[in-house]
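ok new one. same drill as before - structure tokens go in, u give me an amino acid for every spot. 203 of them this time. try not to just spam alanines like last time pls lmao
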């Protein structure tokens, strides 16, 4: 009987040691009066432009807390999540001040990327037909664009168009000329495509 009891105590000893280690770790992290940031993260660190996410944080022994850049709803709490909608890659920094004047901070970056379906795109830019005007070739060019806020061409053949997804225009170059179509979308993003029109030299 004594042997069984002794063996049972020996088997329980490792658990007691493990519990003591966990208790010591808990006291190290959560005990005392020192200022501590116990969590600061976002569940989604990679956003599509226009989307939102949350930042979650928790502090111990803090008299004030703020997030830079400023985020509405921030305050001292063990567990709190606040909503953010960054327009560009943004580094968020949690700054906590303790009752003794100590400062603790942590930071991370939320990255953003454009929605590929909202990027400007040129689907077509080419010659529809060519006609002759008193011996000179006149070319009818056409284009088709997506997500266009502005459309222009160089050499300039028409004023800048605003929100024109499709168009056609005439040109009458005197020599071989390369036309560059520029489509500008949201946030100033742009795409270009070139078209060269061959004009034979004059005899």
């Amino acid at each position: 009987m004594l042997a069984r009891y002794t063996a049972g105590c020996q088997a329980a000893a490792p658990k007691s040691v493990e519990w003591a280690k966990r208790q010591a770790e808990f006291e190290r992290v959560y005990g005392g009066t020192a200022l501590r940031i116990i969590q600061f993260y976002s569940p989604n660190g990679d956003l599509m432009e226009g989307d939102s996410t949350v930042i979650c944080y928790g502090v111990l022994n803090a008299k004030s807390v703020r997030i830079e850049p400023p985020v509405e709803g921030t305050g001292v709490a063990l567990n709190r999540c606040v909503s953010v909608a960054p327009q560009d890659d943004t580094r968020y920094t949690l700054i906590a001040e303790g009752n003794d004047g100590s400062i603790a901070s942590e930071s991370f970056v939320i990255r953003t990327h454009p929605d590929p379906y909202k990027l400007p795109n040129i689907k077509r830019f080419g010659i529809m037909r060519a006609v002759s005007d008193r011996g000179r070739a006149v070319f009818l060019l056409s284009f088709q664009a997506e997500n266009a806020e502005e459309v222009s061409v160089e050499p300039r053949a028409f004023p800048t168009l605003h929100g024109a997804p499709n168009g056609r225009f005439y040109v009458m170059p005197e020599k071989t000329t390369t036309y560059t179509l520029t489509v500008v979308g949201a946030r100033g993003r742009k795409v270009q495509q070139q078209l060269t029109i061959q004009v034979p030299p004059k005899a």
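The radius of gyration is 33 Å. and btw The domain at 117-197 is CATH 2.60.40.2470 (Immunoglobulin-like).
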